[in-house]
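Chain A, query sequence.
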Amino acid sequence: MAEIKVLFVTSEIAPLIKTGGLADVSGALPAALRSIAVDVRVLVPGYPQVMAQLGPNEVVANFAELPGFPPSRLIFSIMKSGVPLLVLDCPSLYQRAGGPYSDPDGHDWVDNPLRFGLLSKIAAVLSCDESPLSWHPEIVHCNDWQTGLVGAYLSVSPGAVPNVITIHNLAFQGNYRPHKVQLLHLPPASYDMNGLELYGNMSFLKAGLYYAYHITTVSPNYAREIQGDELGFGLQGLLQRRSSDITGILNGIDTDEWNPESDKHLPAHYSSARMTGKAANKLALQSRMGLNQEADVPLLGVVSRLTHQKGLDLLLEIAPRLLELPVQLVILGSGEPGMQKNARYLAHHYPGKVAALIGFDESLSHQIEAGSDLFIMPSRFEPCGLNQFYSQRYGTPPVVHNTGGLADSVVDCNAETLKDGTASGFVFSGMSADNLYDTIKRAVELYHDQRKWKALRKNCMSKDFSWETSAKAYREVYYKILGR
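Chain A, predicted structure.
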């Protein structure tokens, strides 16, 4: 089939700028799409971290007189992955200390509506007859609330191309007071329940969902969950009405970056056929984190934001009971002050058994995936998740809650699934401390049966989580939108 031209719009992209899974998707999916004859170009804001890492580049457009917005320009470059990059350079909005969404103290930038309104506006300009570029997309692919106004701007743009939006996390919606409609020069008629109005506010994400030709989510199960009251976050009615236009596509992972046979962060490499390196990684992780060097005690690993969504409050609550099994526990993450305090408390009161590093360390995150025996991921909701993929690839069976992408990607280990070779972790339903404890205990008991444990690890490492399958599914969505 003929090549499709797609403008992929995102607020972050790995490895240039990352706060979460959106960056990983934005870094990997366009590259996978280009490998199957989809001509993708990525539009991203020119944060300091992005500008500092640009290779050879050139200015390809200037936007000096967009109503309501400061002057900006478009810079073209090419990422190391080969993906063409369009960087929106607007120093007054993006060149500042802090992160993409918040200041150095963690407070949201007060002008975020303007910052991501401009991103949406430029994406719309590039996706209609007003584009100053010679390259014209056939589809614009938006991601999360930061790009949600693209469809609203396109609704009054000449020659607008179709747009698709991917929901990475419906809980984050970009809701602001309604006077922002005028400040952002949005179509006045768009501030309506059939538009971007949501319970008296202007909602970036509501606009994205309403005006999109098609909606995708990052797992099939999450596509169903967001149409219900529990995880619809006020948008379930709209999503139910658009159910025939929603497709759930499970994320993939970068299988070069996450490969136990070649991972540059690991003290020892290993494969499903040669697992001795995994034991060496466990001992190295225990040594690095000050844990007792006990090869036969199962080591539980956590790499996560310490938030209510991630369910780590339950793990911290049952940790003293778990240590009696016995197990060891290593935690890497940051988040809510109460959980950070509890993690530090456990590490202080159970030296040699619990270790906690508050913050983030890329190298340590790889070492935890490789050196742990079990990976604990009890999220209350999880649109897709990535660590459960990494864990399985590294032969570290994950313990997960039966929700979202976790339910789509982890098969509970029991007698039947062990026998048929599909078991790849431990899944619990019912979000409670006791249910989590019982599931971890079940996993620990299996750990001590080496024959079954080896079979489980082999199952995990045989699964394919590459981006190729996901990229083909996105291409099918594009074909559907274009009627091909």
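Residues 30 and 421 are 32 Å apart (CA to CA). The chain has two domains: 4-252+468-482, 276-464.
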